[in-house]
Amino acid sequence: MTDIITDSWSNIIGTLASISLVFGYLPQTIRTIRTRSTDDIATGTFLLMGLGGFLFAVQGALTGNVPLLCTNMLTTVMSSIIFGIKMYNDHFKGKRRNKK
Q1: Contacts 24+ apart (CB under 8 A), 50-59
Q2: What's this model's pTM, rounded to 2 decimal places?
Q3: What is the CA radius of gyration of the chain?
Q4: What is the number of other CB atoms lying within 10 angstroms of the CB of residue 17?
Q5: Which residue, 49, 98, 96, is CA-closest to 77?
Q6: Average pLDDT for residues 60-84, to the nearest whole number?
């Protein structure tokens, strides 16, 4: 009986964590796509968060943990979008600065 209760709470907490992570990334991803503004975004943060999400997704795939896999694939994609726009902006802003 205790295992059932523990498993239920574990699933509830895992679901809430997944929802929190996805909806935590979503506003920044939408804002970055819409505005293309990345001046206040730390490059290292989104690089490491994307890598962490990717590694958790791999762990989910290896262990057969579908919620872990799906959540972290979503966060990896969102982090990669933000990181990609950041790299694009930094690259072309650097070129513009050097022309002046």
Answers
A1: 50/75, 50/76, 50/79, 50/80, 50/83, 53/79
A2: 0.80
A3: 18
A4: 13
A5: 49
A6: 93
- Alpha-carbon distance of 10 to 16, in angstroms, equals 10
Distance CA 60, CA 72 (A): 8
pLDDT band at 7 (very low <50, low <70, confident <90, very high): confident
Tell me, what amino acid is at 26? L
DSSP string for the chain: -HHHHHHHHHHHHHHHHHHHHHHHHHHHHHHHHHH---TTS-HHHHHHHHHHHHHHHHHHHHHT-HHHHHHHHHHHHHHHHHHHHHHHHHHHHHHHHHH-
pLDDT value at position 46? 86
pLDDT of 19-70, one tens digit each? Answer: 999 999 999 999 999 999 998 889 988 899 999 999 999 999 999 998 899 9
